[in-house]
Amino acid sequence: MSKTIAINAGSSSLKWQLFEMPQEEVIASGIVERIGLNDSIFTIKYGEGQKYNEVLDINDHEFAINMLLAKMTELNIIASFEEITGAGHRVVAGGEHFKESALIDDAALKLIDDLAEFAPLHNPAEAAVIRVIQKLLPNTINVAVFDTSFHTTMPEVNYLYSIPMEYYEKYQARKYGAHGTSHRYVSEQAAEMLGKPIEELKIITCHLGNGASITAVDGGKSVDTSMGFTPLAGVTMGTRSGDIDPSLLPYLMGKLGLTDIKDMIDILNQKSGLTGLSGISSDMRDLEHSDKPEAQLALQIFADRVRKYIGSYVTVMNGVDAIVFTAGIGENDANMRKSIINGMTWFGCEIDDEKNNVRGEQRVISTEDSKVKVLLIPTDEEVMIARDVEALK
Ligand code: ADP
């Protein structure tokens, strides 16, 4: 039997799914939250609706993975560690080097470490997890699946910032984007749903979760995306500002008495977006249940920023066949989908209210007459990771 574990490690969390491959059957999944804090939460789902939960102090990723492997044998999910022949790791920053998923050898791991400057919260945690798996499962193949790889097909006209060219040449200062695995998955699914080769399609994919990004996928290739050098750019997000005028930074730092630019960036990452605008929450559900005008305004701004990116990507690709919604908000929030598409009747794109009244189900949600199809496609980054491991085995 050949099992592959897909691992998505954040700075303080670790999400995973265990697949039987090549059938792509999910045997178990789980999450470890609050790593490095008190009362970490360790959860496994397995079998037929069975669950295992434990609250304890988990100090680091090594402890988390040790515990995970031990529990998997204890709960008879696996008979021995040898059954796990592949491990796929989500890595946020792959820079310009990693144009596709890669087998992890010493050189690749060093590059992942070196790219920490591009994703300081993520790459070090991901590299740490890779090292732990290498140690605990020495016969398992490790594959890195990068958030940025899908976007390495962007033309320079779209990835370059209008700043001195030498900053790109010397320091690789450019747009890299993120959520690539999700954009790749849903665009492939969209082509399947539409029954056309992806090479013939222009698709705009909207990954709307806590983090949100919009991508123009022309002929199966990412040609532009809303996130930038880091995932701070683009549309309004749960706690991130998205695009702003950089001149605001020194101005606000002066007003707020801040001297360290990192504190200002923290505000843009953690205290802005829906949280900052509403003063209530980063969660769409809380805003939709609130009758405070600030909450309603935050919802309008979110929809407006997504709509503007969609409009601009119609221009980038000179047309669009389908718009795809995915991730927490995209999959679950019918009101938000409607609100985003509402302003688009000018190019014959219309939501069917009845079809749109759905959560988390793959389907067409536009009217029969809509020239541009609107699709709801639940994302599945983990299965993409497992597929890439399988392909490199
Ligand atoms: P992450 O980027 O953390 O993976 P998710 O893709 O899980 O985020 O999306 C999380 C967001 O999805 C939440 O912030 C919440 O606003 C939104 N969400 C989840 N369920 C619903 C729902 N039923 N209605 C509206 N929004 C929802």
UniProtKB/TrEMBL annotation:
A cellular component term, taken from the record's GO annotations: cytoplasm
Binding site for ATP: K15, H207, L208, G209, N210, G211, D283, M284, R285, G328, I329, G330, E331, N332
First-listed, main subcellular location of the protein, grouped into a coarse class: cytoplasm
Compartment annotation: Cytoplasm
One MF term in the entry's GO annotations: acetate kinase activity
PROSITE patterns named among the record's database cross-references: ACETATE_KINASE_1 (PS01075), ACETATE_KINASE_2 (PS01076)
Positions contributing to substrate binding: R90
Chain positions recorded as Mg(2+) binding sites: N8, E381
One BP term from GO: acetyl-CoA biosynthetic process
Cofactor: Mg(2+); Mn(2+)
HAMAP family in the cross-refs: Acetate_kinase
Protein name per the record: Acetate kinase
